[in-house]
């Protein structure tokens, strides 16, 4: 008996975590030709933004089904679907790793369940990314940035200029400053970076826009797949690299950047400086997230992280975020902050 024969998916209660069997039933509705012989829960469970299940077909192929649990996850899923459709077969041939593909969808309680082809590979936390993996990550990101920008515009996805990228950063700075909780040393540092014209002289590229350690899938030390495409756009390539600067082993970031630059033949000499600025602004965004949802715990955590960063900056005042004077700052806390941010969604 097929999974779809024994479940009434239309009446499943809103807000309750759906079992892998229910998700399998939804999958057979979304993709009628699927012959599912196995299903198991997948992902972060009730703390995540999605109810997810890994499905096994009779032919041995695997599929992933996801149902958003809140409005933010639903928006992310919709954006991800647009991006995956924009990544045509022709575009994908330019990548040496796999990207998931849309298989089907079905409505469920005001949202929709979407089935994707499963991308094979193992995840690794940033702490587990060693030198060999870092080199592969750098090459994978370079491959994304080498894609032609025309397909982004054709798909109606954002195409940002350097000045628009700068304005986005300034908007975050201004909103964070308005809270009165950002140390003055950091605001001065960020404002100086915003006013440094050489920092913003770069060629926009196709970027994933949402990369983190959790986006990479590996077989051994090689990147075999990249996930999380909901921020696909043309923009600042440094946005795809900043998360590597949170690695506890500084050599990981250095190797990744070197592999990236070698693959790209990049003339963007300020990319690492902008990446560090984006990493620091993640702390500002964490603060803004806490104030938006009125979470004293998150705000206190963000203030503590910003204060620690400010102390490091104060001890190195001769090295602002300016061309060729990039300091090495202890921002290891960014990785943990990002994980907490994901759980808060």
Q: Could you give a short account of the major beta sheet?
A: 5 strands, antiparallel
Instruction: Give the averaged pLDDT, no decimals.
Output: 87
- The share of residues in helices is 40-55%
* Number of helical elements: 11
Describe this structure in words.
Helix 4 packs parallel to helix 8 (250-264), helix 7 (184-195) packs across helix 10 and helix 9 packs antiparallel against helix 10 (296-314). The chain has a five-stranded antiparallel sheet with strand order 1-2-3-5-4. Strands 6-9 form a two-stranded antiparallel ribbon. It is 43% helix and 14% strand. It is globular. The protein has two domains: 3-117, Phosphorylase Kinase, domain 1 (2-Layer Sandwich); 148-213 and 232-249 and 269-344, no CATH class. The protein starts with 19 loop residues before the first helix and ends with a helix. The chain has 345 residues and is an alpha+beta fold. A hairpin with an 8-residue loop joins strand 1 and strand 2 (50-57). It contains eleven helices and nine strands.
List keywords for this structure.
11 helices; Phosphorylase Kinase, domain 1; disordered C terminus; alpha+beta; two-stranded antiparallel ribbon; single chain; 5-stranded antiparallel sheet
Q: Which secondary structure elements does this structure contain, and how are they paired or packed?
A:
Blueprint: H1 20-30, E1 36-41, E2 50-57, E3 62-68, H2 71-86, H3 89-92, E4 102-108, E5 111-117, H4 131-145, H5 150-154, H6 162-178, H7 184-195, E6 205-207, E7 216-219, E8 222-226, E9 233-235, H8 250-264, H9 271-292, H10 296-314, H11 333-344
Antiparallel strand pairs: 1-2, 2-3, 3-5, 4-5, 6-9, 7-8
């Amino acid at each position: 008996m097929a999974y779809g024969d024994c479940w009434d998916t239309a009446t499943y209660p809103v807000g309750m975590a759906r079992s892998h069997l229910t998700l399998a039933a939804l999958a057979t509705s979304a993709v009628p030709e699927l012959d599912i012989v196995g299903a198991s829960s997948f992902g972060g469970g009730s703390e995540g933004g999605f109810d997810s299940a890994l499905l096994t077909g009779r032919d041995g192929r695997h599929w992933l089904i996801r149902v958003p649990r809140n409005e933010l996850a639903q928006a992310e899923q919709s954006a991800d679907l647009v991006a995956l459709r924009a990544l045509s077969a022709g575009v994908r041939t330019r990548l040496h790793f796999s990207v998931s593909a849309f298989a089907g969808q079905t409505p469920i309680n005001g949202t929709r369940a979407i089935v994707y082809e499963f991308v094979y590979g193992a995840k690794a936390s940033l702490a587990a990314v060693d030198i060999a993996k870092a080199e592969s990550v750098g090459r994978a990101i370079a491959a994304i940035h080498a894609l032609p920008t025309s397909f982004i515009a054709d798909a109606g996805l954002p195409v940002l200029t350097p000045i628009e990228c700068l304005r986005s950063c300034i908007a975050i700075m201004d909103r964070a400053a308005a809270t009165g909780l950002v140390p003055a040393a950091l605001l001065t540092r960020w404002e100086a970076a915003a006013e440094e014209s050489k920092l913003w002289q770069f060629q926009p590229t196709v970027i994933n826009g949402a990369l983190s350690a959790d986006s990479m899938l590996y077989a051994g030390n090689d990147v075999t797949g990249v996930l999380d495409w909901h921020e696909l756009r043309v923009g600042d390539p440094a946005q795809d690299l900043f998360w590597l600067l949170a690695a506890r082993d500084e050599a990981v970031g250095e190797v990744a950047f070197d592999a990236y630059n070698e693959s790209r033949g990049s003339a963007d000499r300020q990319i690492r400086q902008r990446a560090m600025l984006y990493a620091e602004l993640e702390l500002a965004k964490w603060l803004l997230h806490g104030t938006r949802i009125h979470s004293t715990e998150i705000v206190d955590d963000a203030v503590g992280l910003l204060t620690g960063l400010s102390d490091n900056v104060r001890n190195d005042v001769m090295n602002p975020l300016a061309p060729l004077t990039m300091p090495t700052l202890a921002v290891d806390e960014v990785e943990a902050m990002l994980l907490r941010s994901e759980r808060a969604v």
